[in-house]
Amino acid sequence: xAQQRTSDEGSxxxxxxxxxxxxxNAYPARFAITVFAGLNLLFAVLLxxxxxxxxxxxxxxxxxxxxxxxxxxxxxLSVVDMATHWSPFxxxxxxxxxxxxxxGVLTLASLLGMTVARRLGLRQRLxxxxxxxxxxxxxxVVKEGQAIRLGEVGGLLRxxxxxxxxxxxxxxxxxxxxxxxxxxxxxxxxxEATYWAFMAFTNSGFMPTAEGLEPFATDPWFLIVLMLGVxxxxxxxxxxxVLLKHLGRPRQWSLHVKMTISVSIMLFLAxxxxxxxxxxxxxxxxxxxxxxxxxxxxxxxSSMARSGGFAIDDLGLLHNSxxxxxxxxxxxxxxxxxxxxxxxxxxxxxxxxAAVAEARGRRSMEAFDRRIPSDVLRLAVSVTxxxxxxxxxxxxxxxxxxxxxxSFVLFDVISAFGTVGLSTGFTHAGLEDxxxxxxxxxxxxxxxxxxxxxxxxxxxxxxxxxTRPEERPIVG
Length: 476
Description:
Layout: H1 2-26, H2 28-48, H3 61-72, H4 88-103, H5 105-117, H6 122-132, H7 153-181, H8 186-201, H9 220-235, H10 237-245, H11 255-278, H12 291-308, H13 320-332, H14 345-359, E1 365-367, E2 370-372, H15 374-402, H16 406-417, H17 433-448, H18 450-457
Protein name: Potassium transporter Trk
GO cellular component, one term: plasma membrane
Organism: Agrococcus baldri
């Protein structure tokens, strides 16, 4: 009887495993969303327990759900005081959550599988490849050269583990002495340095102390280290992978790497200069400080606006023009397969290259002596339109629920979708529960990516075996 029960149980588990494998292979995007949703719910349960709070009382379900999504989606928006609300256990859950969310749940799963099995199966390679390149969720042949090819996924995963350890350790080393000089106890300084390092590299933006960045608001060393951590985290693991292979040979860099680095630097410089001009003379922000501090604050915000989420100044006191610029930067975000959100810098580059090609009468897009196929443009347009539609819809709903000023609501919605974490004050503890849930779902949609979401929602993907007659509508 015992052997028969074991056999029946094994058969039952085997059937469920086969069904899971079939679902993952047939619908990788839906499988990714299911796994990621389960992870968010798991952290929500952990944060809702009395053990996770400093006062020993359970966190309200909606607040726990919001914070769990914000943590796992490495966003940084809060409806509780992150520095004082959580117990040591709760803070540990938060720090683990941002690591899991920053690396990518599927990449982490594949990494653990490789560590245990010493090899990667085809399914694990496909999952990790789709996490490093969202266009792989589409069925059929991906025509453009990938930054990470299927056979290189094992190397990518080793790069992920190495880069996380090295970059975060370097940030801790750079921040720890400064915290000691600030009078922190050695153990407290080590904890805070680790917390700041984790939140900078994962682009989360949570702060370990109630005073936040106020003690370091004029400290170039501390702020520049945070900016460096955020910038590196926003480039993406495929970029690290290529740079480690061809660090001294820029000609061997892929088009993805060149576009990601160049556009990221241009946005950082342009954003800093624009903030410097727009906030000049604004006594409510940094506009009346000495020139050096104005430059520091302007470029710090430029770095954080695309994904970092750390804030020195009250963003609600910025000029409306600066808020609009921040909306634009948050919407763009960082690099693909990075800890950053947004539509990604390569998507912006593709749209710009398409406009340039059309203005010059060229039939194809070109960059760095490479031709970019038209299906990449279709994907870029799809990502942009899906993202804009989600943001617009959520903004309208929240305006009806809260009645708050549109500039503040739009700002926080884009921040949520772009997993940035900056806020004008719209997102707070007193926000209505329906609004918190909607913002949490917006963060979730922004983290999994509009490409994955669109592929998952598609009822079927069929190959069309015929071509309809062509006709050109009037555009413009």
